[in-house]
Design goal:
With about 450 residues, this protein is α+β, with helices and mostly antiparallel strands. The chain has ten helices and 17 strands.
Length: about 450
């Protein structure tokens, strides 16, 4: 066991976070980058091989998703194999014992399902889904960690019954993990999240916490969870991709019903027959929106688009909350998710292989993520009406588009803060322009917006 203030290469140990059967996890200070990280270090045991941890790193590098904890670095330091990762605030196991709003609970469930669905899409079975392996970060971001027991699905798959007993599927305990095994484990994690209780085997419905589950959440959630923890794997969802698709349907249906409920029922008084009258509702924008059955959020988005769409080019929809976003945004200003326009169509002729944003074929570098993983496809220079500023590098002076982070010609970081002409407000963190009356987060640095 390492001690506080002990040096390990460039890291200074601050304390131990957790201890498992195979490895310890420490919080440490990176003395070069001046940041705090989590270090996973195998225990000194003749029965523990570094091969399992090497495989964990290699599997993690195959997964590129905002809800999966990436490996920042992995190396041998002073004879120890050290895996460095981003440091979170707490695990879901710590958070789950405290009260959470229904909206927050649904957001956490959405992120957990999205993470496992991505792993299954890459043909990777996690094999140890439990609350301790979901790590929370600022902004209510959830990330799935610890692929130490993960298995890559082949035509035939054999494995030991590794995993955590409270959440392990019956077939996995017998050494035959499947995608449905992860579905089973996540079903139990989500049941505990929604109901506040972890049911005991054998499962008999209604289980402990069922009344709380039915009272606070749509009834379809209970049906989804019941299907996910069936004894026979064939009766469950085939994988987390299918389970996540079902959850998204339930979420969208619940949101539509909530919007209708917020708008109220049409009365028979001054409004009468669904028409706008001259009484308390009046003839304003809000009255017309209510008559059309739009929720407050859609009204907000529509008003935002009226004012800012032309300048910000918010022609895309956020992949999580479906709010209007621009390709240049690093964060959704409505829900805070990273890269909200990922996989959306672009008006650019090419795609950056690193961040998947649009790039022009005569650029040398990606203007949004500093990436250089694409080739210049032409020596011809193309004009574009979107160019509105010049690079401040006196050796470059090439044109820039609004909200570029880096010059696509010389790789210089854009120093002068971008402003929004229609708004006088700016982010307190990055100094870039924000639509403070609408946004919850800065679209450029993800800092929460204070009104």
């Amino acid at each position: 066991m390492l001690r506080a203030r002990q040096k390990l290469g460039k890291y200074r140990i601050l304390g131990r976070i957790a201890s498992g059967p195979l490895a310890d996890v420490y919080t440490a200070a990176d003395t070069i980058h001046k940041t705090r990280v989590a270090l996973k270090i195998p225990k000194s045991d003749d029965n523990i091989s570094n091969d399992d941890f090497l495989r964990e790193v290699r599997i993690a590098t195959r997964l590129n998703h905002e809800n999966i904890l990436p490996v920042q670095d992995a190396s041998f330091i002073d004879g120890r194999f050290v895996i460095a990762m981003e440091l979170g605030t707490e695990s879901l196991a710590d958070r789950i014992v405290h009260r959470m709003s229904s909206v927050h609970t649904m957001e956490i469930a959405d992120q957990a399902l999205a993470a496992l669905a991505h792993a299954h899409e890459k043909k990777i079975i996690h094999c140890d889904i439990k609350p301790e392996n979901f790590i929370l970060f600022p902004g209510n971001r959830l990330k799935l960690a610890d692929f130490g027991f993960a298995k890559i699905s082949l035509r035939t798959l054999k494995a030991s019954g590794s995993g955590t007993i409270d959440y392990i599927a019956p077939e996995q305990a017998m050494g035959r993990p499947k995608f449905q095994s992860d579905v089973f484990s996540l079903g139990l994690v989500l049941y505990r999240l929604f109901a506040g209780k972890l049911p005991e085997w054998p499962f008999k419905w209604p289980m402990v916490g069922h009344d709380r589950l039915r009272k606070r959440f749509p009834p379809e959630i209970a049906d989804m969870l019941r299907k996910s923890i069936q004894l026979d794997p064939a009766d469950r969802y085939r994988n987390a991709i299918e389970m996540y698709a079902e959850f998204r349907k339930i979420s969208r249906r619940s949101a539509r019903q909530s919007d209708k409920g917020n708008n109220g029922k049409k009365g028979k008084g001054k409004i009468g027959k669904g028409k706008i009258g001259k009484g308390k509702v009046g003839k304003g924008r809000n009255g017309n929106s209510a008559a059309n059955g739009a929720g407050w959020r859609k009204m907000q988005w529509r008003e935002f688009q009226r004012q800012y769409r032309g300048e910000l080019e918010t022609g895309h929809s956020c992949r999580r909350c479906e709010g209007p976003v621009a390709e240049s945004m690093q964060c959704c200003p409505w829900c805070g998710v990273d890269h909200p326009s990922r996989q959306a169509d672009t008006r650019m002729p090419a795609i950056c292989p690193r961040c998947e944003r649009g790039v022009k074929t005569d650029w040398h570098y990606c203007a949004w993520c500093y990436g250089s993983g694409f080739e210049v496809e032409t020596k011809r220079r193309y004009s574009d009406k979107r160019y509105s500023r010049k690079c401040t590098n006196h050796r470059c002076r090439q044109p820039l588009m609004p909200f570029m982070r880096y010059c696509p010609w010389c790789h210089s970081k854009v120093r002068k803060a971008w402003k929004i002409a229609e708004s006088k407000h700016k982010c307190r963190s990055c100094d870039w322009g924000i639509a403070r009356e609408f946004w919850n987060y800065c679209a450029w640095c993800s800092d929460p917006v204070e009104r």
